[in-house]
Amino acid sequence: MENVAERFQHIRSQIRHAIGIAGRPRDSVQLLAVSKTKPATDIAALYRLGQRHFAENYLQEALAKQQHLAAFNITWHFIGPIQSNKTKPIAGHFDWVHSVDRLKIAQRLGEQRPAHLPPLNICLQVNISGEASKSGVSLDELPELVQAVRALPGLRLRGVMAIPEPETSYPKQRQPYRQLYQAVGQLNDPTLDSFSFGMSGDLKAAIMEGATMVRIGTALFGERL
Ligand SMILES: *Cc1c(COP(=O)(O)O)cnc(C)c1O
Predict the structure, then answer these.
(1) Measured between alpha carbons, how far apart are the two ends of the chain, in Å?
(2) How much is the average pLDDT of 121-135?
């Protein structure tokens, strides 16, 4: 069994390798450590190795860990489903929210973002696999949502997040990311500079198709129980 330091080095070298093959600039992909279900001690261990960006899915769990780790200089990302009665603590305790999939949620996050903090960085979650069960706005609805969210105070719209259906074939992994990357390109808006694409199983495909943030849980922290 590898330890967290070995896994961290391994993921970082996989990211560097994929960036090289894609011919992209060296620091163009940020590693987000997805720490859901993992204890604050695991986050602290990775922090000591230099990791600063952490992502959480469950609000109560995240807030408890943040309290534990208040002395650490962590950038917190929220990547889980958002109920509208939970927007206030999310707006107050995170730097990024990747899982915004409707205007109402964006409006609330913007209104509830504390005035002493910089605008909240937002990615719109897009459902590119078209499964009815998964959250996310459709590609067709994306331009309208971008327009509306861009105008909201308290927020800084940065880009999109996608969680495609798991695929083991590399070309099939790349296809939905390519489609979404192109759709965002057609919006012709240079402020949309962030693509939250890729998890432990499709990291390379995501980086080949423009990911600027990869969300890695299992490959860093081990299996979730
Ligand atoms: C859990 C989760 C991840 C990390 O998945 P791994 O396969 O463990 O790397 C990434 N993104 C989201 C939205 C998640 O919920």
Answers:
(1) 16
(2) 84
Q: Is the CB of 217 under 6 A from ligand 1?
A: yes
Please tell me the distance between residue 158's alpha carbon and the centre of ligand 1 in angstroms: 20
Q: What is the pLDDT of residue 131?
A: 67
Percentage of residues of the chain with pLDDT beyond 90? 94
- 4-221 carries CATH number 3.20.20.10: yes
Residue whose CA lies nearest to ligand 1 atom number 6: 217
Alpha-carbon distance 29 to 24, whole Å?
9
Note the pLDDT tens digit of each residue in 71-127.
Answer: 999 999 999 999 999 999 999 999 999 999 999 999 999 999 999 999 999 999 999
Q: What is the domain partition of the chain in residue ranges?
A: 4-221
